[in-house]
Structures are given as C-alpha cells and as structure tokens.
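Standup notes, structure subgroup. Blocker cleared on the iron/sulfur cluster input:
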Amino acid sequence: MLGYGKIAYVDLTDKQVEVVDVGEELAFKYIGGRGWAAYIIFENLDQIIHGTHPSNVLVVATGPLDGTIFKGGSKTTFAAISPLTGIYGDSIVGGHLGSMMRRAGIDALVIRGASQEPCYLLVEDGRVEVESAEGLWGLHSRDADTKLREIHGDCSIATIGIAGEKLVNFACINVDWDLKLRRHAQAGRTGMGAAMGSKKLKAIVAKGGGEVEVADPERLAEVVERLRDQIAGSTLYEKWEKYGTMSVIEWSNNAEALPTKNFQYTRFDGVERFGGEAVHRVEEYTSGCANCMMPCGHTVSVGDGHVTVDYENFAMLGPNLGLEDLEAIAKANYLCDYYGLDTISTGSVIAFVMECFQRGILDEEHVGFEVRWGDAETVYKLIKLIAERKGFGNLMALGVRELSRYVGGGSERFAMHVKGLEISAYDHRAAPAMALSYATCDIGAHHNRSWAITYDLEVGRDDYGEDKARRVIYLQHLRPLFDMLGVCRFPWVELKVDPNLYAEAYSAVVGREFSLDDLLLCSERVWNLTRVIAILKKGIDVEDDTLPARDFEDPIPDGETKGSRIDRERFMELLRSYYRLRGWDERGWPTREKLLELGLEETAEKLYG
Ligand code: SF4
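Run returned:
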C-alpha cells in the first residue's frame, strides 16, 4: 500500500481541475516535495517562456512524511522557473500548510495558466476549487490571511502580499500569518510569490481534518518513539528551545562570517543588542510548525503586529545594513513579511544600494533621497518602494544582478549573488567549502542546500582539499532530501538526530524498504535533474558556478581572518574536483553516462539527443 500520491492539476486559465493518482515512477524515484517539483517542471520545460508568464508551472508539493505523526513532518515546496534567476527555483516552507493539504487528501498542486480575475484555491475533502479573490487583491498578506480565516475557520493559508501582485522578482509567500499556535513562515527564496502573483493567485487555503494514510502505522509509531527519545535526550535541546536559529548571530559573529555592510566586513560590534540572547529577553511567544516538538518560531511584537524572527532575516536586515537596534531590525523584517518580500534578497539589494552611495556610484538624484548605512527610516522607505515598484524601488525589485547592470560603474563586483540569487547570510571568504556550496547551489546561492561552513571551521579555513568537495556533495544530497520527504531538517542539523530514522519512517509510510543510501540516490537524481533544467533553460555551465568578484579580490579587512579571500586558482581546482566526483564534465554538465546511471534516460535524451 502506498500512503502517498494524489496530485491536483489546476488550469487557472479555464478553471479546470483534475485530480490524478501518482504513478510508481514519480512516487519512488522522486519521493515528493522538490523531487516531484523538479520532475514536473522538467516535463513542462519546453512550454515555459518566463517565470512570470502564464506558461510557467507552479508546483506546491508536500512530502510523504507531511501530516503523519513523524515529528517535524510539516514542510511544503513551492517551485517553478524562478522569475529572479530564470532557472529552476524553489522555496521550502513550514507552518501547517503541508499537513493540512495532506489531511485534505491532496498531496501536490500543479498550477498552470493564469486567471483573468484574482482568485484563490481551496483545498478540501480531496477536491480543489478555484474561488474568487475579489476583495482580497490589493491587501497585504496579513490582512488577506485574516479575511480568509474568517471565511474558512480552522485551516492553513498561504498568501502573497503587494510585492507578489506587483511581480517583484524576489516576492515571497507567507504561510499562516500571526497565529500563536502556528508558526508564521515564508517561502522566501527565488521569487515564488511573483510566480503566484503572475497567475493572479492571491492565496491557497488548505482545510483538512482527515487522517493521512500510512502503510505500516505500528512501525511508524515505533520510529517516532526513537526520534522523540533522541530529540528529548539531546544535550543541545535546551539551547535550541531557548534561542532557535537566533543564537547563530553570536556564533556567526565569533566565526567572523557575519555579513556586515554588504559583505565588506565579517564582524559587527553590538550583536548583543539583537542576537539570540536579546531576542530571548523580549520575545512574546514561541510557535511551531505542525507536529513539532522543538518549536523555533520566536516571536516579538512590532507596533500592532508580531514578527517571527530567524537568523537569516536578522543578519541580512541588521548588520548587513548597519542596523543594530533590535526593534528596527524586527520592524524591517515585519515590513518584508507584510509586503511579501524575501528578507535575504531584500537585505542584499538595499545593502548594495547603500554601498553604491558609500562609493559615490549612486546619489540622491538617482534614488530621490540619501541612503546611509544604519538609517532605519530609509530602510523602511526602500522596502515599501520595492514592494510597490515605485521610483527607484522599481529597479531594485529586479534583484541585485539586474540592478547592478543598470547601475554599472563597476558595481557588479559587489553585487552579492550567484546565478541571480542573492547570497544568504554567511561570509565565505575564509570558508572554501561554503564558497563552493554557494557557487554550485542549484537555485543560486542559498545556504539551505549545503551549510558547509562548519566543516571549514572543523578542518581548516584555508584548506581547499578534495574532501571539501566531497562534503559539499554529500550535504547537497542529504539536506534537500528532507525537503523531498516534507520534513524539518533541524532535528538532524541542530540536535544530531540519526538521519537513518528518516529512511525508516519513509519505508513505514510507503510500505517498501528504503535505506538512507537509497534515498540519497533519489536526491542525487533530483540534483542532476535541476542542473539539466538550468543548462537547458539558461545555458548554465562552469562560467556560472562562480562567486562575486568581491570574494576573490577584497580580503577580509580585520579580525583573525584578516587578509582571507577566495584564491581563484585553488577554487577552480576545488570546482574541478567537485565536477569529477559528481560525474560531470569540465563544462559542469552531467555526462550522459551519469544521467543513465541515475535512471534519467529522458533527461539524457533531451540534453544529448
Ligand atoms: Fe518548524 Fe522550527 Fe519545528 Fe522545524 S524546528 S518544524 S522549522 S518550528
């Protein structure tokens, strides 16, 4: 018995919905979540013109552990061709959406076309209805969420804000705004909010009260028991419960990896004012995703609202902009959520403009007012301008890669992105494995795929040995596997839970035996598939697997890592090792043999004919 597998194909142009059973190939070769998304986007690739064109296909996919009793089974993938990068993009979100979708009897949505009028999707009782969003379009995420909740009661809601409606390239999707019992979370990266907005799709409401089918419930309960013991017995639990990801502010500062003033510096004086300890002192409550026993939604108040804070948000909107006041950073974070903007990309784009002012490349005449490091009011103003695409904000809404092309004047060298995706919050000039992770990440520079900086600290920050490439590859398979399973990776990352438990849980859910190695092979298959999508869509190759010029040319200016920068030649050698270990050629293309070995016959045919 397979406990997983109903996909709803929704055509918004003619309001048709068809629910189909998933075949074995998709179920077992691609598992779920981003695996399903990559497969479906590859199948539709020829027809997709652009990230915000109706031809784009938006996939909302849960994983087989979503909605089960497995702890942290709460993750949902939003994926499409990214409006920001033009290649495969995805963003994984927590909250209760995945659990509610599965309990409503739908495991994934494949959304095609575009509606003429604003609409939203209601997922309930094994059906998907296209509903009118009259009265919702033009509302901020929070307000749309409130209105929909008044109509639908107990449910999970994903909404876009103004930024998604206006097709800001890095618009996000908010899930479950402002509920004390439910973690407020965002699908932030790669502009999935704009992909949704381009379809005139304001929201997805999932209302599920059913049971999720599991092939072997007794076995799953036994695995969960062991997982529970490992979480509760971890010596790291207490610290996690107190600070969540916010303690990484202090960690990153001590490691001299905290992006400061657009990655010019790696340390920031005053982190005690807004780091984990400071947030702990003022937090109002902590909320969690569905069925989580280590909730990390630390929430502080901002004016008449609340914001759930995380390391990446605070690093990119705090020290990276020269802000050090907790209230100011929290407000900037709140505004990004409110308007529906990815905090990482927004922090990067604003920091870029600040540095352009610092260097005299931009001035008041260009932007309309002065932009200075650490000026909170200007940050709020810019966030609003970006979301509404007004004035200079209209250019900033394109993302840092495109913006730097418009600005020129040598600014491209400090436009902090890889393949168009703004780099997340770890300076990597003294961390070659982290640099390789960013340079080779399939969606552009994103820490989630391979957080290898701890390995750099462990084995040496000036070490470019082949082991680092091996480590990055392992992480690039293991970490996205959690996204395919629809489960939170934090028990493994933060509390060192045994990853084999996840394979056992998956086997119990689907009623077939899979080892962790079997699942890692599926994850490798998906990694190669998203690479081929990038090659076919944008001609991505070795030239694109690189870093901003700053990383090679601007040494870290102070601290114990002073003088460190990425050595170009040694980095290229590391990249060549990475390709060789992956079975890719010197262009960075998976070889035909590698694709066939992974069971990607159709993909090999498309790439090589
Ligand atoms: Fe969600 Fe945090 Fe729990 Fe993970 S640890 S399931 S992100 S609340």
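Discussed briefly. The pocket of iron/sulfur cluster is lined by residues 72, 74, 94, 183, 288-289, 292, 294-297, 488, 490 (CB under 6 Å).
Next: hand off to the docking folks.
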